[in-house]
UniProtKB/TrEMBL annotation:
<keyword id="KW-0472">Membrane</keyword>
<dbReference type="InterPro" id="IPR016410">
    <property type="entry name" value="Phage_imm"/>
</dbReference>
<dbReference type="Pfam" id="PF14373">
    <property type="entry name" value="Imm_superinfect"/>
</dbReference>
<feature type="transmembrane region" description="Helical">
    <location>
        <begin position="62"/>
        <end position="85"/>
    </location>
</feature>
<keyword id="KW-0812">Transmembrane</keyword>
<keyword id="KW-1133">Transmembrane helix</keyword>
<feature type="transmembrane region" description="Helical">
    <location>
        <begin position="28"/>
        <end position="50"/>
    </location>
</feature>
<protein>
    <submittedName>
        <fullName>Superinfection immunity protein</fullName>
    </submittedName>
</protein>
């Protein structure tokens, strides 16, 4: 009676052919989680990017509201509205040259 006892390498190769290599699965999972994290971070910081791109006068206020209250969802929407509605630097300088009365929010 001849009984074959598989070696560790044979067991590993058999398992690898069924499941794929652990390195490939782990790498794909890590890359997927990394991409999801980066997209989530980009979406979370979107109001700050919009405020900086528009040249909002008080972009720091938008950043503080977004970073402190943004995780609630409502705070993120408030920061997004602030970034889209607040007065830009160019409009503020033009208003100050004309000596208009100051307002917190102006429609762009």
């Amino acid at each position: 009676m001849n009984i074959h006892v598989p070696t560790t390498y044979e067991i590993y190769r058999g398992w690898q052919s069924v499941q794929g290599s652990g390195l490939e699965i782990g790498t794909a999972l890590l890359l997927g989680l990394g991409m999801a994290f980066m997209l989530g971070l980009l979406a979370f910081l979107l109001p700050i990017f919009i405020a900086c791109q528009r040249g909002v006068h008080n972009a720091a206020v938008v950043a503080v509201v977004n970073c402190t209250l943004g995780m609630t969802g409502i705070g993120w929407v408030v920061a997004l509205v602030m970034a889209c509605v607040m007065e830009t630097d160019a409009r503020r300088h033009a208003r100050l040259r004309r000596a208009e009365q100051a307002t917190f929010l102006t429609v762009p």
